Amino acid sequence: MRLRQVTLREIQLRLLSPFETSFGTSDLRRILLVEVEAHGVTGWGESTAGENPFYSYETVETAWLILRDYLWPMLRGREIAAADVGDLLAGVRGHPMAKSALETAIWDAEAHEKGVALARLLGGMRQEIPCGVSIGIQPTTAQLIAKVEEALESGYQRIKIKIKPGLDIEPVRALRETFPRVRLMVDANSAYRLEDAPLLKQLDPFHLMMIEQPLGWDDIYSHAELQRRLETPICLDESIVSLPHARAAIEIGACGIINIKLGRVGGHTAARRVHDLCQSRAVPVWCGGMLESGIGRAHNIAMSSLANFSLPGDVSASKRYWAEDIIEPEVEVSKQGTIRVPSRPGIGYAPRRERIEKLTKRQERLA
Question: Which of 62, 304, 361, 365 could form a disulfide with 309 if both were Cys (CB 3.0 to 4.6 A apart)?
């Protein structure tokens, strides 16, 4: 497949309600979309880089620059297969969110060219995926309980809540008392230190599915030490930016579960390699969310169809975050808490061009 042109667009989408984590609060998402044209087909990808460098050093601004000045020139006019893109871009150190935006768009284009669903092209086996939901830090415990009740009534199979020092043990206690059988996990987004192990140990009696990324994003070693002190499995997120990081974490016992995010590892090929390693070591994986628009969400659905995505991920319905998404049909979750994996070619959802143009704040076409 020969690549002819790429279009970068920044759109802005306002969340239905503010989403708070230990990093801060988000109410407006700046989203960088990538559209690739090749052989009469187009493919769409999305950068999950944020507005600020808190979750990752990447931002919308850095991703735009790296895509325009380095990544696209490396692929322009070349005859390539989507599976080779990650290795072709390896000369650029880091910047996985920028790489993923371009690589996933090329995967979508190739799936359209071949007339197959992206999930099948990736080797996915599932016809539907189990869904969980991520709930940000709430002003009061009563509001948190109400949010969880709403999510459970919508069918979601797993509840994840964000925690940070001072808002951890008591919210979990209240939820476990109110919902004794719900599949519950917590996400700390690197808010704690190893010295906080006695505090985190207090979460063990609540029978959580996992504690996600409690310690520093670049400290796999300390997670191994913490895991030895806890009964609750640790899930690593920010720490797993590549296959070698995943291998190191598994080898030293730093986690029992891994969260795979396309943007964090650099695209579908890299995600599949991490998935395959975890599967060979009997380490379950699940798909994390980054407040994506429908395009990024569609790519997450395709990735989650791989066999070892055995735990409910953060792939939720469009209407959970947006008054109106940029794809049709919008992503919907069944009453059983599942999403049907599309069988149509490509990502299986059609970008709504008119809405995307309306939301576009800037764009740049690169030939």
Answer: 304
This model's pTM is above 0.85: yes
* Backbone CA torsion sign across 56, 57, 63, 66: negative
Q: For the chain (length 367 residues), average pLDDT per consecutive 10?
A: 95 91 85 95 97 95 98 94 97 98 98 98 96 94 96 95 96 97 97 98 98 97 98 98 98 98 98 98 96 97 97 94 96 96 97 98 97
Amino acid, res. 34: V
How confident is the model at residue 95, as a pLDDT? 98
Quick one: pLDDT at residue 20? 81
Residues near 84 by beta carbon (within 8 Å), at least 6 away in sequence: none
pLDDT of residue 208: 98
Residue 106: CB partners within 8 Å, gap ≥ 6?
1, 3, 36, 38, 43, 45, 75, 80, 82, 85
What's the Cα-to-Cα distance from 12 to each of 16, 106, 136, rounded to whole Å?
A: 13, 23, 20
Distance CA 32, CA 34 (A): 7
Q: What integer pLDDT is reported at residue 77 of this predicted model?
A: 87
Using CA atoms, how far residue 132 sits from 148, 178, 240, 326, in Å, is: 11, 18, 21, 22
Domains in the chain, start-ordered, CATH in brackets? 3-115+350-366 (3.30.390.10), 121-340 (3.20.20.120)
- Please state, in angstroms and rounded to a whole number, the distance separating the CA atoms of residues 235 and 231: 12
Spatial contact of 222 and 197, defined as CB atoms under 8 Å apart: no
Residues serving a catalytic function are 162, 261
- Residue-wise DSSP of 98-161: HHHHHHHHHHHHHHHHHTSBHHHHHT---SEEEBEEEE---SSHHHHHHHHHHHHHTT-SEEEE
Handedness of CA 154, 320, 268, 354 (dihedral sign): positive
